[in-house]
């Protein structure tokens, strides 16, 4: 019988009148039923959260940290159990799914510790008119209130934890909306918060399709901060609906790997393939195009090709490198990009093959800027190689993208790499490594259509707090 999952609201597990059936993308098997919350139920979530805010924010950092450490311990204990379901629900290799849960526990522990280091400051007047010299400002951080955390299908647990833990340690209360495909895993994450015994209403879940309840949960005046990871169109929509309220948006990307003549080509190829094809390319930070200097292109392309041909293709439970994509719409989109590149004359160096939603990894050489693949985010296992004549051309093509998440530069000339990094319109530049989010205490952000706001544990806490000054005059 299909397992029925429940939402966690105000310290209780709750059913809704309607459900959504979740299927495994790889096998098509039924995985479970999750509630499709009504707008009245969302109102109750938000009212319960606000009721809990006063007492939660009144706790000391050390008291809130103790709850978070408990949650992290539970996740570590249950990592294999949750990972097994997560692997099935989003067709992610089993080992990667387990590491996603462990990484979430690590973020939660780190956020708890970081909270202990939160401090305000005392400012002295006197820098302006003479009368101000007696003024003192005591500046302290305060929670923003109710944080709505929305995670995407590709990291439904980890990109939830990276929002929820910094929000809670800062004294906020949380409503967490997981992606529909990923909501069972999200509710398993909620079980850890429930078992850790957080006071009722501090942490709550909302399940339901974004297309049905998304606007309602975002526009609702009870929400004080929206922390979203997902696609750029939905992020832009949320940005418009947020009005004056603060937001954090982690959106799409088109990360370039720029390869110079002096690069270590073996290391470069290894990182490019891992970066482009990990979780079948369904990572915001995946390497999504290679901009290689013509002089080393032939050698690099051959090395990349060998490694792409060695990728394993199959099912998530066998830890295959390439697994079926999340749904048919995603696979159709990737196929469209592949067909466009092929029709416009790109050389496919691996076989183009699709079985259902499983797309075999495709390496395209000689991709040109008139092809969609040069600009669009596939979120699938296809990698375009664009040959360039100069570093300036590589920088120009990289910056022409509407996105600006990350980039990699492969070279042994570090001063030159720093000079290039300075010119790239992205949030992070990696030297001699693949583009990637971690480690999770580093700032993580996107320029242009890749996002707004800065994540990374300390930065997330800062974003989800505001400052309040108390000013007085000394005698
Ligand atoms: P998505 O379709 O935008 O969905 C993301 C989340 O938003 C899901 O929970 C979804 O719920 C919800 N949602 C949908 N419509 C909504 C609305 N109107 N209001 C509020 N929430 C709404 O993205 P995805 O397909 O899950 O994830 C893939 C995309 O995310 C890619 O573009 C990728 O680059 C990006 N991403 C970016 C980062 C980053 O850090 N920059 C990280 C990971 C992923 P439903 O599932 O119920 O529709
Ligand atoms: O999909 C986007 C994630 O934030 C990527 O994280 O680089 O650690 O795989 P990752």
Automatic annotation (TrEMBL):
InterPro entries: Ald_DH/histidinol_DH (IPR016161), Ald_DH_C (IPR016163), Ald_DH_CS_CYS (IPR016160), Ald_DH_N (IPR016162), Aldehyde_DH_dom (IPR015590), ALDH-related_metabolic_enz (IPR051020). GO terms for molecular function: glyceraldehyde-3-phosphate dehydrogenase (NADP+) (non-phosphorylating) activity; lactaldehyde dehydrogenase (NAD+) activity. This is NADP-dependent glyceraldehyde-3-phosphate dehydrogenase. It catalyses: D-glyceraldehyde 3-phosphate + NADP(+) + H2O = (2R)-3-phosphoglycerate + NADPH + 2 H(+). PROSITE patterns: ALDEHYDE_DEHYDR_CYS. Pfam families: Aldedh. It comes from Streptococcus macacae NCTC 11558. It is an enzyme of class 1 (oxidoreductase). Gene3D superfamilies: Aldehyde Dehydrogenase, Chain A, domain 1 (3.40.605.10), Aldehyde Dehydrogenase, Chain A, domain 2 (3.40.309.10). Belongs to the aldehyde dehydrogenase family. The gene is gapN. Its EC number is 1.2.1.9. The keyword Oxidoreductase applies. The keyword Phosphoprotein does not apply. Residues 18-470 form the Aldehyde dehydrogenase domain.
């Amino acid at each position: 019988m299909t397992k029925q999952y429940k939402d966690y609201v105000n310290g209780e597990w709750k059913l809704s009148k309607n459900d959504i059936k979740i299927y495994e993308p790889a096998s098509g098997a039924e995985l479970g039923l999750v509630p499709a919350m009504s707008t009245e139920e969302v109102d109750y979530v938000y009212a319960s959260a606000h009721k809990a805010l006063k007492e939660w924010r009144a706790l000391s950092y050390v008291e809130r940290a103790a709850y978070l450490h408990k949650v992290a311990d539970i996740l570590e204990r249950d990592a294999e159990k949750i990972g097994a379901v997560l692997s099935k629900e989003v067709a992610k290799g089993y080992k990667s799914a387990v590491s996603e849960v462990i990484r979430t526990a690590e973020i939660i522990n780190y956020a708890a510790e970081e909270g202990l280091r939160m401090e305000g400051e005392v400012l002295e007047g006197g820098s302006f008119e003479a009368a101000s010299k007696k003024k003192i400002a005591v500046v302290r951080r305060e929670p923003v209130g109710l944080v709505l955390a929305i995670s995407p299908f590709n990291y439904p647990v980890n990109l939830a934890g990276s929002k929820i833990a910094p929000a809670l340690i800062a004294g906020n209360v949380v409503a967490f909306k997981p992606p529909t495909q990923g909501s069972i895993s999200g509710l398993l994450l909620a079980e850890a918060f429930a078992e850790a015994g957080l006071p009722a209403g501090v942490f709550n879940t909302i399940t339901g399709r974004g297309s049905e309840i998304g606007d309602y949960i975002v526009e609702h005046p009870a929400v004080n901060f929206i922390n979203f990871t997902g696609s750029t169109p939905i992020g832009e929509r949320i940005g418009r609906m947020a009005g004056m309220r603060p937001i954090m948006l982690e959106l799409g990307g088109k990360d370039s790997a720029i390869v110079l003549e002096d690069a270590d080509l073996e290391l470069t190829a290894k990182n490019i393939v891992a970066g482009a094809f990990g979780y079948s390319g369904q990572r915001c930070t995946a390497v999504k195009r290679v901009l290689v200097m013509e002089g080393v292109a032939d050698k690099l392309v051959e090395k990349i090709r060998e490694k792409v041909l060695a990728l394993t293709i199959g099912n998530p439970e066998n830890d295959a490198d390439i697994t079926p994509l999340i749904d048919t719409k995603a696979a159709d989109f990737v196929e469209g990009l592949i067909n466009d590149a092929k029709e416009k004359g790109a050389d496919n160096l691996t076989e183009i093959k699709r079985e259902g939603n499983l797309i075999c990894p495709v390496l395209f050489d000689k991709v040109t800027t008139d092809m969609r693949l040069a600009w669009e985010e596939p979120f699938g296992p296809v990698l375009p190689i664009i040959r360039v004549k100069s570093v300036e051309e590589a920088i120009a093509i990289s910056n022409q993208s509407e996105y600006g998440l990350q980039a990699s530069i492969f070279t042994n000339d570090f001063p030159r790499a720093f000079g290039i990094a300075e010119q790239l319109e992205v949030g992070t530049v990696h030297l001699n490594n693949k583009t990637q989010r971690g480690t999770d205490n580093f700032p993580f952000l996107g320029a242009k259509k890749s996002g707004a706001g800065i994540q990374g544990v300390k930065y997330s806490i800062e974003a989800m707090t505001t400052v309040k000054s108390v000013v007085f005059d000394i005698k």
